[in-house]
Amino acid sequence: MSKSKFFSVLQSEIDRIDSAKTSKRNEKLITGFTDDPSPRAIINGKPVLVFNSNDYLGLRFHPALKEAEHEASSKFGTGPGAVRFISGTLAVHRELEEKLAAFHGRDDAIVFSSAFAANNAVIFSLIAGQSKDSLVSNDVLVISDELNHRSIIDGIRLANLPKEQRAIFAHMDVDDLERVLKENTGKFSRALIITDGVFSMLGEIQHLQRIREIADRYDCSYPQGILLLVDDAHGIGALGKGHGTEDIENTKSDILIGTLGKALGSDGGYVTADQVIIDYLRESAATYIYSNSISPGTAGAGIAAIELLRGNDGQKLLKKLNDNIALFKKMAAENGFTMAADSWHPIQPLLIGDPERTKQLVALLMDKNILVTSINYPVVAKGKDEIRIQLSALHTSEDIEELITALKEAQETIAF
């Protein structure tokens, strides 16, 4: 059959990826977790230290989230039933949105099945409108940091704008952003600046305050103004008092995209903004209108996470997380490891630069019952391969010492 020829092409591409040592499909199978203070994953029947999770506060194991998830599932069922405009909105989803809006000091919020789905739909809606009848024109200049997340890149691509309406500013280079805005003054009705709050490969924190200042300075140069959209999936719950990059930078974006699936220990994405933006997105965002929301249990867990983070227990977890980051950075420096020195985020990348060596290091650490992940092309540029070590508030000092010892021993086998 002719399709066998296409299957052969697919197999050749898989073989190419495997030979480049950048394959990602052979994930470790986790069959459970221990009940240690820092829960270890059970892999092949062995307890393994986890240093590759986005669960920065350890909330996915927290009793309050588990209880809230159970209560919401018991009350509303295990699934949403259908999309919200067809079967209605469950009260637990609306309560979550209200809690998120209050937590971030915004008018309202809207929950999506994931942050990826949120970015895709929100960016498209703000650029291109909903349909050919939309009053929202696509006379917009979209300006994106060159290292933005794939979900942002795809959201811009979906809008299919002409090349002259798409601009990239050099990574975290606010002067270059200003150059783009200045050069395009008078050419477009509005501008949309899009950036990650925290760049997940190196744990870098964007200069939001300076970006906000520049956006405000040039706002009058564009008849419909300039909007700042920030995806702070890795910042929320991990930085400041939990509000993310906006806490650190003491500034606010116009549209904030977050996730419940990282530091907040649950799942799903969300957007929070002024009421008019949220109302518009409920009418235009395809992955909200045509896709099921998160499960009721997941929403219940999300509510519990927000309530916990706002209280003393959540702030204690944030302090413990920061203490762990400081301890790890100190021990890594003492042992001469090449880290991303500027990261004071739970993401602490060990820079290696070669896909083969990163894979070998992952295997050596796994032999010592420590789980980490190699990050290779195309997630990062060629030659920028790394081990992305991710810290949690639940890690003990003994856990971190165990990791450092294992890395020292591995360094004797692999030069990194």
Automatic annotation (TrEMBL):
<dbReference type="GO" id="GO:0030170">
    <property type="term" value="F:pyridoxal phosphate binding"/>
</dbReference>
<dbReference type="InterPro" id="IPR015421">
    <property type="entry name" value="PyrdxlP-dep_Trfase_major"/>
</dbReference>
<keyword id="KW-0808">Transferase</keyword>
<dbReference type="InterPro" id="IPR015422">
    <property type="entry name" value="PyrdxlP-dep_Trfase_small"/>
</dbReference>
<dbReference type="GO" id="GO:0008890">
    <property type="term" value="F:glycine C-acetyltransferase activity"/>
</dbReference>
<protein>
    <submittedName>
        <fullName>2-amino-3-ketobutyrate coenzyme A ligase</fullName>
        <ecNumber>2.3.1.29</ecNumber>
    </submittedName>
</protein>
<keyword id="KW-0436">Ligase</keyword>
<feature type="domain" description="Aminotransferase class I/classII large">
    <location>
        <begin position="47"/>
        <end position="407"/>
    </location>
</feature>
<dbReference type="InterPro" id="IPR050087">
    <property type="entry name" value="AON_synthase_class-II"/>
</dbReference>
<dbReference type="InterPro" id="IPR004839">
    <property type="entry name" value="Aminotransferase_I/II_large"/>
</dbReference>
<dbReference type="GO" id="GO:0016874">
    <property type="term" value="F:ligase activity"/>
</dbReference>
<dbReference type="InterPro" id="IPR015424">
    <property type="entry name" value="PyrdxlP-dep_Trfase"/>
</dbReference>
<keyword id="KW-0012">Acyltransferase</keyword>
<dbReference type="Pfam" id="PF00155">
    <property type="entry name" value="Aminotran_1_2"/>
</dbReference>
